[in-house]
Design goal:
about 625 residues, mainly beta, 8-stranded antiparallel beta sheet, about 0% helix
Length: about 625
């Protein structure tokens, strides 16, 4: 709504700029056409957690004005405005943050917010009186400037909740404490995304407001709510006297300043049932570690040049993107002959905190657990405990993936993923070199075989490629057995776990559901979470910190069957298991949205075509 902000010029910036302390950095932006000023303040040290009090020196249309008692909490910013235009009105200045404004016929409504107990100050030109409705005590004083001009200064300390001010100049103001501002909504009354100030309704109180409309004498509001609260609605039309909430007509009252109020009942006593996860099936998701695994259909790594801006550490080029695999885990198999190899030097890059593991002829020979401060890691693999053969030794390397880099990091998104280089070191009796490398990534690579979920949804783990995470897949056959993530792995490797659960949540409830995971201290592992075919979380217990993973609507079925899959990658021979794998509800809300609708169109099922990607 702040149209004046769309065209501004930098007037000044710096530490201590326009403020009384060097602890604050200020950018002064000004609209050259309207002279509206935006003084954006933050701590000079952006990581500061200090609570800093200062005064700010403003240039207004009535001359310079110094506003005291401005307070900035750590890691926050505040925009102080001057000559701020809303409708036909102008706010001379405000040290209080502006949330929004609306135009309701001839009435302008301006909404400000502050932390509780902070001091706010704002002013209007001329002589302005107020009527206050609420607990906040607002004092007014008239200030004369040079000549005959004057302005009215309003100062207050923010209390809990809200206070409404009716000004003699016709402006209605809401002074909101921050937690109340979190439940302030301005639903549009138009489908045009460019909402004008007179195309909205204001509502305060519920957890969420989704839509609002006016018909005859009724304002209809749809949204979500949980605890008992007062719903306050400002329409600006005296003929509207009734609130309908989610289709239910509510006893409605009118305030002295023209808003409507009604009570919303609590729904915390509504009972829901969250099932316990059981009936797990498990299968090996790393058959590629075996020397005799059939990789004849895999992509051969045979490139000696790359368009990547980073020079490979060895040839052939092993960057996954050079072979059409961009996101997700990658699996490599490198072949060499003879018994002369003593070790291998491996550098992998999967993003911050991404680890990797390597097996020689099925035996774990090392890796790196990932480091939250490093994009790539290097390790020397000792072959002394592995069995070597005269022909076709196979080094299998699995690399994790935590995303591509932003432009602030090295080469940004162009930083390659996968293996940056692998070299063999021979024993004292001879040398050793790789004769071939192969790679496998997400099923179909860049072909996007699952256009609904998209090409970033999967990686190259065996279970991913074969679609073991998809609804409709049946974990049957000799490779599957009964086993849960709580049992886990006793050595290195990757297990795939699948189960299903049913939900039956009332259609008028919004119950956000998530999965909570935990692992014993010292567990070095990478766990991926799939619900109804969607990868919706990665749990790396030795790095953390996330242990709770939400499932949004469209991914989870609130009524009906859900398929849950976990890939558990034990990165060391200590193995890995989970001591918590449980569903939970974040909260319960009464809602106007049909979360129980059929989302099957967003959840394509497994087909036998997946078998070709082994």
């Amino acid at each position: 709504m702040s149209q004046d902000l769309l065209y501004t010029e930098m007037e000044s910036n710096g530490t201590g700029n326009a403020v009384s302390t060097q602890d604050i950095w200020t950018w002064v932006l000004r609209n050259p056409n309207t002279t509206t000023g935006f003084y954006t303040t933050q701590h000079a040290k952006s990581s500061s957690r200090a609570v800093t009090d200062f005064s700010i020196n403003l240039q207004t249309s009535l001359g310079p004005i110094t506003v005291p008692d401005v307070q900035l909490n750590g890691r926050q910013s505040k925009i102080v405005v001057t000559d701020y235009h809303f409708g036909k009105n102008t706010l001379l200045y405000s040290s209080v943050d502006i949330l929004t404004y609306g135009l309701f016929g001839s009435k302008a409504v301006l909404v400000l917010y502050l932390e509780q107990d902070q001091v706010g100050e704002f002013a209007f030109s001329g002589n302005v009186s107020i009527k206050s409705y609420g607990n906040t005590n607002v004092t007014t004083s008239r200030v004369k400037t040079n000549g005959t001009a004057s302005y009215t200064k309003l100062v207050y300390k923010q209390t809990a909740g809200k206070t409404a001010l009716q000004l003699s100049n016709g402006v209605l103001m809401y002074l909101l404490e921050v937690t109340t501002a979190w439940k302030f909504w301005a639903p549009p009354t138009t489908s045009d995304p460019n909402v004008a100030p007179d195309e909205q309704i204001f509502a305060i109180g519920p957890y969420l407001v989704r839509n609002a409309s006016v018909s005859s004498n009724v304002v209809s509001i749809s949204g979500d709510n949980t605890n008992s609260t007062t719903l306050e609605v400002y329409v600006g039309d005296a003929s509207v006297d009734t609130i309908v909430w989610n289709g239910e007509k509510l006893p409605t009252k009118q305030t002295a300043y023209g808003a409507l109020t009604a009570d919303l009942a609590s729904i915390v006593d509504r009972k829901i049932t969250i099932p316990t996860l059981s009936g797990w099936k498990v299968a090996d998701s790393l058959p590629e570690a075996a020397r005799d695994y059939d990789d004849s259909a895999w992509t051969v790594c045979n490139k000696t040049t790359t368009r990547a801006p980073v020079k490979p550490l060895s040839l052939p080029v092993l960057y996954s993107s050079d072979y059409g695999y961009y996101s997700g885990n990658k699996v490599y198999r490198g072949y060499f002959d003879g018994k002369n190899a003593a070790s291998a030097n491996v550098t992998a890059q999967g993003g911050s905190a991404a680890g990797w593991s390597a097996w020689l002829n099925g035996k774990l020979v090392g890796g790196a657990p990932g480091n939250a401060s490093l994009l790539s890691t290097t390790a020397v693999l000792d072959f002394s405990k592995a069995t070597l053969y005269d022909k076709d030794n196979v080094l299998t390397v699995v690399t994790d993936y935590t995303g591509h880099d932003q432009t602030s990091t090295g080469k940004g998104a162009a930083n390659p993923r996968g293996l940056l280089g692998v070299t063999l070191k021979g024993s004292s009796n001879g040398t050793a070199t790789f004769k071939q490398w192969k790679i496998q990534g997400n099923a179909g690579g860049s072909a996007n075989i699952d256009p609904v979920r998209g090409p970033l949804n999967e990686g190259g783990l065996y279970g991913e490629r074969l679609g073991w995470h998809l609804p409709g897949f049946s974990p049957s056959g000799t490779e599957w057995s009964t086993g849960s993530p709580a049992q886990g792995l006793n050595s290195s490797g990757i297990n795939w776990y699948v189960t299903t659960f049913d939900l039956d949540i009332d259609s008028d409830l919004d119950v956000p559901i998530g999965l909570e995971l935990s692992a014993p201290a010292g567990t070095v592992a990478s766990i991926q979470i799939y619900l109804n075919g969607y990868q919706y979380g990665k749990f790396i217990p030795h790095i953390g910190p996330q242990t709770r993973f939400p499932f949004p609507p469209g991914v989870i079925n609130n009524q009906g069957k859900n398929t849950l899959a976990l890939s558990v990658w034990a990165e060391t021979d200590a193995g890995a298991k989970l001591d918590t794998v449980s569903l939970f509800a974040y909260n319960v809300y009464q809602t106007s949205f049909n979360f129980a609708q059929d989302f099957s169109y967003l959840q394509p099922e497994w087909t036998s075509e997946r078998l070709q990607y082994a």
